[in-house]
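queue> holo job accepted (phenylalanine)
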Amino acid sequence: MKEKLQALRAQAMEELSAITSSGDQLSKNLEDFKVKYLGKKSELVSVMKGMGALSPEERPIMGQLANEVRTSIETAFNEAKENAAKVELENKLIAETIDVTLPGKQPLMGRPHPISAVQTEIENIFIGLGFEIVDGPEVEYDYYNFTALNIPPEHPARDTQDTFYINANTLLRTQTSSVQIHAMEKKKPPIRMISPGRVYRSDAIDATHSPMFHQVEGLVVDKGITMGDLKGTLELFSRNMFGEDTKIRFRPHHFPFTEPSAEVDVSCFACGGKGCRICKGEGWIEILGAGMVHPDVLRRCDIDPEEYSGFAFGMGIERIVMKKYNIDDMRLLYENDIRFLSQF
Ligand code: PHE
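queue> job finished
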């Protein structure tokens, strides 16, 4: 039995060192080896089964030897397995070496659409002035878009702002002024907010019209708010938006929901007011409508006009984008042609 065990050990060692394959074949060979020499049906196990036939003196000696043989085969096997894993890893690292000197691939960088860029610029200026940015629904009740803003059914202002109706009293909003009403219903003064977003009108598409465009609404309501506050705010905004030397001009106008109302122009940022192609020789560019919130509008939102007053303004983002970048056709802003968009 002693010879048998020693021969078995020698055979195992020889066979183990003969395994030279790599990858999957190597793991399979190692696994086969394990089954053959260390498994439940291995020769070692069958030799050990013959132990019962030995004399009581021989039995512990052979038992010890069998254990030694088993341990040494096991140790050798584990070493071989570890070694195989190490070699495998090294091969993998060599195969996956990255050449950092290769020229990189330049990713195609996106950028904000000019409408988004200008909207963000406007938002940042008003955030700096302590305004809050609020969102409002594009699908709106007639009440918020018209009636609450002093434009009851049959009012002629409804004709100039015809829109898409979902049903008799639900429509796509024609102006962000609807958000004024939501803001005043939800929050009591002081209110300082702007609300940018899409608006819709039943207009045919041409170089200066689109059935969908963007506005930014502004609303301030507090005790003692005056036209002076409106002027000061718009002046600060215009200087930030169009340059330090920008001047503003108020022209009397009419909006049903503000009183008094005005249209507001900024001095042309291209020519400084001398008159050029961009301002069509005027020296001024109209950018928004504004006014003091009508007392009836305040009252309808449960705000006492004897105690509070406010101003509101609304500007079209496309108009500002087109003037700023000297774009003469609004349609270019919606076609999303990369050759056009990558210029900004
Ligand atoms: N909503 C008006 C428009 O679309 C603009 C406006 C807003 C005027 C707020 C006054 C106050 O023409």
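queue> The two ends are 90 Å apart (CA to CA).
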